[in-house]
Each structure stands twice: as C-alpha cells, then as structure tokens.
Specification:
Elements (H helix, E strand, L loop, with lengths): L1 H26 L7 E3 L2 E3 L4 E8 L7 E7 L8 E4 L5 E16 L2 E14 L10 E9 L6 E3 L1 E6 L4 E4 L16 E5 L12 H46 L6
Parallel strand pairs: 2-12
Antiparallel strand pairs: 1-3, 3-8, 4-7, 4-10, 5-8, 6-7, 9-12, 10-11
Amino acid sequence: MIRLRRTATGAATLALGAVAAAVLGFAAPASAHVTVNPEEATQGGYARLAFRVPNESDTASTTKVEVVLPENAPVGSVSTMPVPGWTVAVEKRKLDQPVEVHGSQLIEAVSKLTWTAAPDAVIKPGTFQEFPVSMGPLPKIDQMVFKSLQTYSDGTVVRWIEEPTAGGEEPESPAPVLKLTAASPSAAPAADPAGESEVEADDDEAEGTGLATGLGAAGLVAGLAGLALGGLAFARTRREPAPKA
C-alpha cells in the first residue's frame, strides 16, 4: 500500500511539473525590441519621445543605434537630449514641399538620427538605454514608423524595420511605431453674458441714481420747511410780552 501511495504521489508530482512547465512556457516574455515611448501623441502638437533600446545579446554590447524618420511624415523641428557617453549625428533631407514651423517655411527636415557610444558607455547585456528626442509639429497621419538599426560590438546588426499590419500578428523584427490621434476640437465659445450683465447693471444704476435724486430733493424740501417753521417760532417769541413778576 505504501508503495502504491508513493507511486501515485510521484505521478501527481510529475503531472504538476508538466502543467507548471506548460504555464511557464506560455508566460515566457516575448523578445525585447526597440520601442518609442510614449506610444501615442497628438497630431499637430509637440512630443517628448524616448527611443528605448534593450540589449538582447548575452555576449556583445550595443555600440550604435540608428533611427530613420519616415519620409511620408516630415517634422520641422527635431532636437535631441544629451546622453552621457553617446554622440548623436543628425542627417537632413530636402523636402518636396516646405513645412511651416512657427511662421517660417522650412525646405529640409531631419531624416535620420545616429547615436554612437564611447567604449565605456555601451549598452551591456541585460541592460537598456533611452535616447530622448523632442519633435513637432507632428503630422496629421495615423502613425509614424521609425525604422531602426541596432549595431553590436561583435559586428551584428539587428534591423528593426518591419511595419505593423492591420489585424495581423506582431512582426518578428518590428519597427518602433508612434500612434497619432487627432486633437480634440476646441469647444465652441459659450455666449458671453457680459453684455446682458452690463445692461442690467446700467439699468440698476439708473434706477438707483433716480431714487437717490428723489430722496435728496425730498430731504431739501423738508429741510427748508423746518427752517421756515423755526423762523416763525422765533419771531412769535420776540413779539410776545415778557411775563410780569
């Protein structure tokens, strides 16, 4: 009986182990790739973005990162934030149609950003690095696809250039995608009641002025009447003879 119990226990343990392995297998994280954060911005506005680059190699370090801006969505203003130990090269291209930025017509736009690491600033295995960028005004399209290249110290180049497909699975080497949403329409200005308020205030003021004027006139008449009565009383007092002792 003991032997059977041990056999059942062992079978149960193996079954639980198989289930756990299956669960862990399904829960295993997907391969990390270059992304842009945040993943959403507003059309026509400016955004502070960060290209996040994880190192996937177990033996090599990331030494260079290249990000290509989409040709169908030129951005007039692009600026980078210094990253310690990294230098950035900015490439530009001529535009078929000028882009207006702050009232000025620009005939060229940034086409590519390339970050290169110093020997002591590489992205080592098990780590990641972010490269902040500010850009705008953002185009009025649904999304911007930033095809990127990641170069390792062993010469390997990973091309994150596959664009997403509508309703499809994520590509094996997806490019960073920034979704763009339309700006919320400005609310229609509410009817300004200032005019009505001013009219009501003027009417109230006029009524108050008229009332004050009427009261003032009545007070003046009352004052004159009192003065006249006082004068008559004084005159009568002087005409009456003084009482005899």
